[in-house]
Amino acid sequence: xxxxxxxxEFSDVYIExxxxxxxxxxxxxxxxxxxxxxxxxxxxxxLLIELEDSVHELPFIRNTEFLTLSAECLHIYDDVxxxxxxxxxxxxxxxxxxKRVTEGxxxxxxxxxxxxxxxxxIDGSEKxxxxxxxxMIQYKDDGKSLEPKTIFNMMNLEIDYVLMELHEAxxxxxxxxxxxxxxxxxxxxxxxxxxxxxx
Length: 199
Hints:
Shape: globular
Keywords: Coiled coil
Strand content: 35-45%
Strand order of the largest sheet: 2-3-4-5-1-6-7-8-9-10
Number of strands: 10
Number of helices: 4
Organism: Alkalihalophilus lindianensis
Oligomer: single chain
Protein name: IDEAL domain-containing protein
Coiled coil: 171-198
């Protein structure tokens, strides 16, 4: 039985896969009982990964020695597949930004040449960031332990996220959520203005 709620967005994905690496990935998916099919058009080869009712398409560009998984945006609604793609990013030294939505916080991980460049957890007032050396930096609302530019960029991400939540609350006409998101947004915009002074 698969998890009920999985939403992982892979943005700006670029992974060069050798044929053995691609075979390993395919074997791993088949061992989890996925059905795999290929579909071709003039420039792109698509790997269709199917399990029960869900079908995901991974676009590959054909090269002589390897295939390049290249996509501006992939939405994956399956935890096994999402985890397999993240392992592929690390093993094959790929690039991508991975946003993992959970019922709790939102996690944003940036991969650069297979390494975790940064990892951000957005959950209310406390954020956790992991840098490429693996050390964790935590900060509360004062944010004094990070560089102002980093805080500013992280706040922009959180503002975007709150705007998205506000939009959903407006569509749902949920007045209490609308007010809650507006308060959070106002607080974030004030803080961002303060941080901007330090740049």
